[in-house]
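Handout, section 4.2: multi-component inputs.
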Amino acid sequence: MAPLLSVSDLAVARGGRRAVEGVTFSLDAGQALILRGANGIGKTTLLRTVAGLQAAVDGIVDAAPDAIAYAAHADGIKGALTVRENLGFWAQVFDGPAIGAALAAMNLSDLADRPAAMLSAGQKRRLGLARLLVTGRPVWVLDEPTVSLDTASVALFVQAVRGHLSGGGAALMATHIDLNLPEATVLDLTPYRADPRRVQDRVPAGFDEAFA
Amino acid sequence: MTALLLRDLRLAVRAGGGFGLGLAFFLILCTLVPFGVGPQGGTLALIAPGILWVGALLACLLSLDRIFALDWEDGSLDLLATAPLPMEGTVLVKAAAHWITTGLPLVAAAPVFGLLLHLPAGAQGWLVLSLLIGTPALSMLGAFGAALTVGLRRGGLLLSLLVLPLYVPTLIFGAETVRRGGAGMDAITPLAFLTAITLAVLGAIPFAAAAALRVNLR
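Output:
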């Protein structure tokens, strides 16, 4: 069986400057990969590239179409809508499963009818993670998913990831904390840092860069 | 796509959504013009088609930067880009939501504003018809401008500068339709041009706006 996500010799750039290059990994069903590396090394850029939000400078990202669910630093929550409405919207967009289970998994059932603007930062983050559960997509690409979560919520999140993995999913995440997730392998990005002295990278690709 | 449309409409009518902002602006303009120009019916009737169309255009402009900026700020736009909706569909839906919350109320309220400006009775029907046909183009072109300027700090001014020239053809043919209707002349020709502009805009602009959004998201 082909891996759910395979990345080979990937180079990504931010602001026209290469961040990391030569990154190669693949994720099968049930596997999780944790990206580590210092601030600014290019974890977010790499994840955005894998999610298809920006083009790779070099290398190949191979995943089935509509396989990836991406969760960024910002949760995409509308404060004027209730928790249920926020989550229901994404469930409809992704044509995913009902939202009851996702609310329960992230311990949001009691908050379901609250306007999202009233939630705390950690509760908002839980709502953002609950969105992953209603996408029904196999590959989760998560950018620092545990920011502003308390210990109990991190445990909930790990439980959700574990459930996702055992259901045949895969997860790629950037995080700085130790998740207590034995299934996961860790990839340190430090050796892949692009050499900033390389001259050819300083030359912008030109006008067509933006439209490539 | 229905889900996105319903969400945007719901957001618009909730607190801080800006629903009715364009309508209120239109009302203010139409009540102030007679004070400024003087209450003579003849003068007002002469300039009414132009004032009404310029008013509709500016009212539409007022809420344009909200089309994508809010979704950009809270990260929804990134998530929508990775959702199964094609970007073109997202643009089309967002423009439609903008039209329903801004353009459609203007169309419905236009006869009342026409009365305020002494618009001849014969032109009322043409006013409603031309606004109904012309304002979707305003929302769609606005969505294009909003897509180009999304992520820019204080992009509102740039957005106006980009979009207003694109509004000129719609303004010319829209106001001309109303003027001819009021004068009892044949108004079908400008109306046909107005329709053609709107159809061309609706057909082509979603692709341009989606391309602009993709560039801005990376």
